[in-house]
Amino acid sequence: MALTREQMAQRVACELKDGYYVNLGIGIPTLVANYIPDGMSIMFQSENGLLGMGQFPTEDEVDADMINAGKQTVTAIPGASIFSSAESFGMIRGGHVDLTVLGAFEIDVSGNIASWMIPGKLIKGMGGAMDLVAGADNIIVVMTHASKHGESKLLTECTLPLTGAGCIKKVLTDLAYLEIKDQKFWLKERAPGVSVEEIAEKTAGALVIPDHVPEMKFSV
After folding, report:
1. Closest Cα partner for 171 from 97, 87, 114, 89?
2. Which pLDDT tens digit goes with each residue over 27-78?
3. Which CATH fold topology does 5-208 show?
């Protein structure tokens, strides 16, 4: 069975390490802040100028001026800092973010990512994605494996305008966790109840399948 948005965020949270500075993109990535492992200190960074982003607020905690890059209201943890977007992008471009979690429309076997534009459709814009993929070495893309029409989003070559070239090495979808190398997708884990056959059917790019593909775990 395909993962829910919350389960995808839980799996990404397993990649967090104590002391990490982490940038969360718009959409599913923002949910990762709700699943920090116990005893771990993480500083979430938002490109609009917040370092130390906390969980989404309860109704009593909502502050309309405290938002993330997706304009969702958020909280701030003790020790958080609020600053200009210029300083925030200096942090991103300077390579000071340990982990970046982004959504995408398409990924291909060359590690290219398309995440900011679909011709003819109204999209919020590229935001900080181009800076993030250029300034970060450790990036995880979180996305659905296929479109609502069943068309694969893991391709031989992206068809949409690129956000970045050759920068993606890890992809988590609602069906699987994969790594990209040697012009191929390498299947590392599958969602509980999802068959290798389904993953292969919905992956348009070259896919390497090991003899044993373990089911995904959602805790450290």
Report:
1. 114
2. 889 889 889 888 899 999 988 899 998 878 889 999 988 888 778 898 999 9
3. Glutaconate Coenzyme A-transferase (3.40.1080)
pTM of the entire predicted model? 0.90
- Alpha carbons 133 and 100: distance in angstroms, whole number: 8
Phi, psi for 185 (deg, rounded to 5)? -90, 130
Domain ranges of the chain: 5-208
Q: Which one is catalytic: 6, 47, 106, 198?
A: 47
Please write the tens of the pLDDT for every residue from 142-171: 999 999 999 999 999 999 999 999 999 999
Which tokens in the block code for residue 25? 């993109």
Of 54, 29, 57, nearest to 128 by C-alpha is: 29
DSSP secondary structure letter of residue 161: P
Strand boundaries in the chain, DSSP class E: 21-24, 43-46, 50-53, 76-82, 99-102, 106-108, 113-114, 139-143, 154-155, 170-173, 176-181, 184-190, 207-208
Is 47 annotated in the active site?
yes
Q: How far is CA 20 from CA 65, 96, 190, 218, in A?
A: 25, 10, 26, 19
